[in-house]
């Protein structure tokens, strides 16, 4: 698991993500490295706290790109 360093709720997104709004992005600290990604919709923004532990999952998007999603451990 990683430690939540920072997070923000996006209410305006880039082209192609309009239907996903709002969504939350975050930065996790894994001691040796940091990971930037999206917080799972299963975690309400109001439940996030700096310092909480989250796990990272890698997902493949329909276009073949990989992205990181943070979930509860």
Can you offer a commentary on this structure?
The protein is mostly beta strands and 73 residues long. The chain has one domain (2-71). 0% of the residues lie in helices and 49% in strands. The protein has strands at residues 2-10, 23-29, 34-39, 53-60, 66-71. It has a 5-stranded mixed β-barrel with strand order 1-2-3-5-4. The radius of gyration is 12 Å and the shape is globular.
Q: Care to count the β-strands?
A: 5
Overall number of domains: 1
Sketch the topology as an H/E string, one letter per element: EEEEE
Structural class: mainly beta
Give the mean pLDDT.
93
Lay out the secondary structure.
Elements: E1 2-10, E2 23-29, E3 34-39, E4 53-60, E5 66-71
Parallel strand pairs: 3-5
Antiparallel strand pairs: 1-2, 1-4, 2-3, 4-5
Gist?
The chain is mainly beta. It has no helices and five strands. The protein has one domain.
